[in-house]
Write a structure and sequence with these properties.
220 residues; single chain; alpha/beta; 7 helices; binds 5-O-phosphono-beta-D-ribofuranosylamine; two-stranded antiparallel sheet
Length: 220
């Protein structure tokens, strides 16, 4: 899979809140055009960050949609207006219907704050501390119908310290989220990463050498 010279990929970013992962993607100078940032929450802080950078934003309010299938249909209609090559879930806190996920199969990436497959779902940092794991981290994966279970693209591992609180651990993980999410989006947009028909992740040799596992030095 040698990198090809093509038009920049069109991406749409979905957020629900703070938007720090979105901001990391915007700062990373990726070879993409960010066509829109879409949120299910009108008050999401990340929308202001996007607007300040002149990026088109939209809100599809899940509470106004009348149900999960209706929300997903409205969201898909908004996404499709932008004809994206890739949909990036950057802290998008909605469970999606199978139909929605299948519509974007192989072109939707999510960041999750744990070393999947452990700790899918919510409260990952609290659960990591309760479980006493010595390593925690984050994962970028392709989205498939089973929540937080899609094929893994890249992970970063961080140590868990004895004195950690949920907040200190979350901050250590978040710093790594901001590293690996732009990396994975770059690989996809440079045609160096794809989801094969059999459901496995294919990375070209250079991307694989950059590291599908990122392990920062222990003091970070
Ligand atoms: C991140 O930890 C992400 O992994 C999780 O939700 C958080 C969103 O943070 N899904 P932000 O909105 O990107 O700052």
């Amino acid at each position: 899979m040698p990198p090809r010279t093509v038009n920049p990929k069109r991406i749409v970013i979905l957020i629900s809140g703070r938007g720090s992962n979105m901001e990391a993607l915007l700062k990373a100078r990726l070879p993409v055009t960010v066509e829109a940032v879409i949120s299910n929450v009108a008050a999401a802080q990340g929308l202001d960050i996007a607007r300040a950078q002149g990026i088109a934003t939209a809100v599809v309010d899940h509470r106004a949609a009348g149900g999960r299938p209706q929300f997903d249909a409205a969201l898909a209609a908004e996404i499709d207006r932008h004809r994206p090559d890739l949909i990036v879930l950057a802290g998008f806190m909605r469970v999606l219907t199978d139909a929605f996920v299948e519509r974007y199969a192989g072109r939707m990436l999510n960041i999750h704050p744990s070393l999947l497959p452990v700790f899918p779902g919510l409260h990952t940092h609290r659960r990591a501390l309760e479980a006493g794991v010595r390593l925690h981290g984050c994962t970028v994966h392709f989205v498939t119908p089973e929540l937080d279970h899609g094929p893994i693209v890249v992970q970063a591992a961080v140590p868990v310290h004895a004195a950690d609180t949920e907040e200190t651990l979350a901050a250590r993980v978040l710093a790594q989220e901001h590293q690996i999410f732009p990396l994975a989006v770059r690989w996809f947009c440079e045609d160096r990463l794809r989801l094969a028909a059999n459901g496995t992740v294919e990375l070209d040799r250079a991307a694989a050498a950059e590291g599908a596992l990122v392990s920062p030095s222990a003091d970070r």
